[in-house]
Structures are given as C-alpha cells and as structure tokens.
Amino acid sequence: MKNALLLILTASTAFASLPAVGPAYKQPETPTAAAYRYGSTDVDWKSAAPSDALPRGPWWAVFGDATLNGLEDRALAGNQDLGAAAARVEQAFAAAGVAKSAYAPQVALQTAASRSQQSTTVANPYLNPLSKDYSIPVVATWELDLFGRVRRLNEAARADAGASASNLESVRLSISANVAATYFALRGLDREIAILKDTSSLRQRSLDLINAQYKGGVATELDTARAETELATVNAETHALEARRESAQGALAVLVGDSAVTFSVAPAVNDIAVPAIPAGVPSELIQRRPDVASAERELVAANARIGVAKAAFFPAISLTGSAGFESGGTEHLFGSDSRIWAFGPSIYLPLFQGGRNKANLDRARGVFDENIAVYRQQVLQAFDEVQDSLASTHILAEQALSQDKAVKSAQKASQLAQKRYDAGYVSYLDVVEADRTALESERSAAQLEAQRLSVAVALIKALGGAWQTPTSA
C-alpha cells in the first residue's frame, strides 16, 4: 500500500506538468477606432485587459456633496441587488473549490456490518448457514489527469468565479452611478420647484397689485384674469414637480435598501459643481470596466471547456485503492490476520458514443464563438459609451454658457416689461409673455445643470469608475 501511495504522488507530479488538450487562450482582436475624440483632442485607445480589481475609491466624492456621500455609503451597505450579486460570487468561488478538489485523491471510510442466514434446504457450501461480516476499509480513488480534463475544468471554474466577481463590481458600479444620477435629478427638481415657488410669490404680489389697480379703475378685468391664470398655472406646475420629486425619492429609497415610507431627502438648492474632466482622459481606464472584464473571463471559461470536451475523446484512467480490516466477528476485527487491501487502475476508453463527444465538442466551440462576439460587442459598446459621454460633456458645457446668457436676457426683458407696464406703455399681456420666457429659461438652466451632472456620472461609469489613472491595489 505504501508503494501505491508513492506511485500516486509520483504520477500526480508527472501529469501536472503535461500539456492539457484544447486550445491555449488568446485574447481576440476587437475592431476599434485608432483614437477617441474629446473636443479638439485625439487620444489613442489601448487594448483592453481585465484590471477591474484596481481600486476605484469613492469616485462620487469629486462632486463634493455630503448628502450624496452618505447615500452612496448606505446603498453599498444595504442594496439588495448588490447583496444578491455578492452571494452569487460566493457560489462561484465555492464551485471553483469543488472543481479544485478533483486534483487530490478522494478518500473515504466505508464501514459495513452484516448478518445473514443461508438456506439449509439447498446445496450449501458453507458449514455454518448463519454468517456475519464486519469491515472497516479506507477507500481512495484518484483520476490521473493525463490529458488535462481536470486542469481545464479548474481553469473554467476559476474563470467563472472571476467573471462572477467582475459582475459584482459591475452591479456595484451601476448602483452607485444610479444613486448619483437619481440624486442629481432630485436636486434638479428641487431647484425647479424653488424657481416656481419664487415665481408664484412674485405672481401673487402682481395679482394683488392688479386687483388693487382694478378696483382703482387703472387695470382691466382681463389683466386680473390673466394674472390669476398665470398664478394658477405656476402652482399646478409646482405640484407636478413635487409628484416627480416623490417618485425620485422613492427610487433612491430602493437603491439604498430602505423603505420609501420612512425614507426622505430634505429639499435643498445647493450648487453642485460639475467636475472638470481632463482633456486627455487616460484610455487605459476602460480596462477597469467590470463588464468588459467579465466578458473576457467568460471567454476564458468557454475556451477551457473546449479542452474538457476534447479530453472526452481520450482514455480516462483512475487509480483505486483500499485498505482496512474485515472479520466475521468483532473480537478479531483489528487483528493482524483481518487486514485487507486492494489496489489497481481502471481505464475508461470511449469506443462508440453515438456522436455524443463530437457534438459536445462542436457545442463547446459554438459557445466560444458566441462569447467572442459578446466580448467584442462589449468592448465596442464601452468605447461608444465613453465617446458619447465625452461628446455630451463638451456639448452641454457649451450649451450651459449659452443658456446662462439666455437667462440673463430673459430676466432683463421681464424687468423691462414690468416697468413699461407700470408706466402704461404696454398691456399686461407683454408682462405675462416676458415672465413666461424668463421662467422657462430659468427652468431650462436648472434642467441643463442636472443633465450635465448626470452625464458626468455616465462618463465615470463608462470609464469603469473615475477618470484618474488606476493604481495598484
């Protein structure tokens, strides 16, 4: 038995150094543009290689908002989708552990005890028809990984576990980005509501003044009706925005893993600066995108399973051994004469499988081809998202400058219209039109600011988290 164990150890070392059947993995080429464009700057792309394990840090801190920081912390601690993704990672690594166990011999203790009665009315070679048998053998089996089936299974399992971990990071990034985007949408609504409430106060004072003028015979009944209409319209729009704010607040509650009934974010109209984005955003940042890393690791797993399918065409050799004690009575069970042992190989040689092995190999190759297409599509989508976010960032910045000018001009026109109306040069309709234009310009500016913040979040997400050059963990 000692010689058998020595043989197992020697074979384990020898077979581990043999090449496994199946193709070695090679990262596929992806059709991409030579460079992306940011404003008037061209920046070269770099080939994607999974580096999603590099730290991203709290990227949302670039916005300098304490409330957002707190919401992000709560989301990462309490989001249920994130908890489910973390559980899937545990499952994947446990499955990898199961696959790894095939490297070692499987050893088990098989105890048995039996008592049987033989018939005495038939020819019976036994002197005593009543027999007892007690055995306590240790049984060991081990598959010789001669053609790399076990190694390929382990390679696939490790890649699956890595893909699952990347998916967790993808969920984490998506949730944190959704929290930021939803929060900025909510703050944009807060700003619009504040603008409408200020406008409502101004129009209420205008209505009071016009009513007084009407009683004095200076204003007309039409002026009064128009002032009442404008006030009611602003109030109605305020209620509509408040309803949208409640919806956004409820979405935030779900993201942070809280009940919408008890969750609340106090209204605030604080300036949140859109972070400055470097003109030459490092192209290697896209390597941190967890979805790209996950797609490549799934490709690695599919490639390894081609090797598993190929190994099915070759013999499977296993070594089986057992040693222990067996006796007809418990009093002699552990005696030297009760010792038993057995050792020998077993060979499974596929001769005819009805085409099953070939079909499995064709299927494995088909899955690999599918994963190549998925990986390439993921890389192309990543490039497109980065390019789109960069372009939107640049365009929205230019639009914001124009919108600021429009707001100032509209406010000035509104003030002039009011003065001309007070002086009796124009009708109240001119005041109404000027006020509407000013209100629309201010609301558009608030919406544009929220959109710029959301696009900044989209760019950060597209780059895999922030735009600082990644550093080693």
Detail the topology: elements first, then pairings.
Blueprint: H1 2-16, E1 35-38, E2 41-44, H2 66-78, H3 80-100, E3 106-109, E4 112-117, E5 130-144, H4 149-215, H5 221-255, H6 290-311, E6 316-327, E7 339-348, H7 356-422, H8 428-462
What does this structure look like?
The chain is of the alpha+beta class and 473 residues long. It has a single domain (2-462), classed as Outer membrane efflux proteins (OEP) (Up-down Bundle). Helix content is 58%, strand content 12%. It contains 8 helices and 7 strands. It has helices at residues 2-16, 66-78, 80-100, 149-215, 221-255, 290-311, 356-422, 428-462, and strands spanning 35-38, 41-44, 106-109, 112-117, 130-144, 316-327, 339-348. The strands form 2 sheets. Strands 3, 4, 5, 6 and 7 form a 5-stranded antiparallel sheet that branches. A two-stranded antiparallel sheet has the order 1-2. A hairpin with a 2-residue loop joins strand 1 and strand 2.
Mean pLDDT: 84
CATH class wording:
Mainly Alpha
Calculate the terminal CA-CA distance, rounded to whole Å. Answer: 48 Å
Identify the overall geometry. Answer: elongated
Structural class: alpha+beta
User: What are the secondary-structure elements, in order, as H or E?
Assistant: HEEHHEEEHHHEEHH
- List low-pLDDT spans: none
CATH homologous superfamily grouping = Outer membrane efflux proteins (OEP)
- Write the CATH architecture name: Up-down Bundle
Most strands sheet: 5 strands, antiparallel
**CATH topology-level name:** Outer membrane efflux proteins (OEP)
Number of helices: 8
Strand content: 5-15%
What level of helicity do the residues show? 55-70%
Rg calc: 37 Å
Q: How many strand segments?
A: 7
